[in-house]
Fold this protein.
Amino acid sequence: MSLAAELERALHYPLAERLPPRGGAIELAPGIKWLRMGLPFALDHINLWLLRERIGGRDGWTVVDTCIDHPQSRADWEQVFAGELDGLPILRVIVTHMHPDHVGLAHWLCERWDAPLWMSGTDYMAARHASQVVNSFGGERLAGHFHSHGMQDEADLEQIRQRKSYYSGLVPALPPSYARLMDGLTVTIGGQAWRCIAGYGHAPEHMALYCEALNILISGDMVLPRISTNVSVYEMEPEADSLTLFLDSIDRFLPLPTDVLVLPSHGKPFTGLHTRIRQLHEHHRERLDEVMAAARIRPVSAYDVLPVLFRRPLDLHQTTFALGEAVAHLHRLWFAGQLRRERDAQGIWRFAATN
């Protein structure tokens, strides 16, 4: 049995292997529907949520997250409009964070239904900036950042330099206005109170939503059942301690009930939140120990520790995420004083054990 399978056995999946059909939904509770849309990446799907709503005397739906802007995603939504809305409109679009699979179609949904966008201020501004500028999530600055952490293959660096419209290709626009979600804010949806819980390290200001009355947590990407959330350091904030921010953030879910139903953005709805948080801490503690062991042998770059953290072949797309995560692990040890860093003659950051 693989380690991932063993960890999954400690969680409970109330729907077992059931998945929503393409363009369809599964009702998880009265007025709460689960949608699942495909993605053209290794992480091949995203979960979206429909919450029955009433705003200003109008009945309709709140959507949580949107998928990327892609012809197939729009076609899937058209099927949802025809078959899952019970003839009612979308009244509000909530986005957990600024990554393309979550916010990509917000502009289209909001315009089509004349519905407002709700998301955190930090992620709205980050998404709006990235959708409008050249070299968003690519270009010379990102190539320079990756080179400074050990990527030296010129062909790979050139591909990153040429990837000048990665984000805007998936998120071509943002609605021109939004309503701000903030940590601790209560949003009433369908007569139920949903409390915003901010998370950091994965995105600038991720918002999860918890409903005490329903005992449901929409966790977004902060807690996923099978894979560990990507936690990276990139060129926009090159000295971030993202992993510490992430680990501190997931502990903010520990006061929730042990039997809360978790609705993650990837994977299946599950119970066992506290177990999963413990698993994530253990996973990162083990990886940190392995990185530390490598750095005791010789000074290492983030690129050097990729085989330590990821024991499978990676294509360039996957490597960009993996390298950001390797930097995050090194930075946690560096900020904790367990590693020191120096820039070598090639301009590459190398980390060595302090004792």
Observations:
- The two ends are 37 Å apart (CA to CA).
- The CA atoms of residues 187 and 194 lie 5 Å apart.
- The first helix runs from residue 3 to 9.
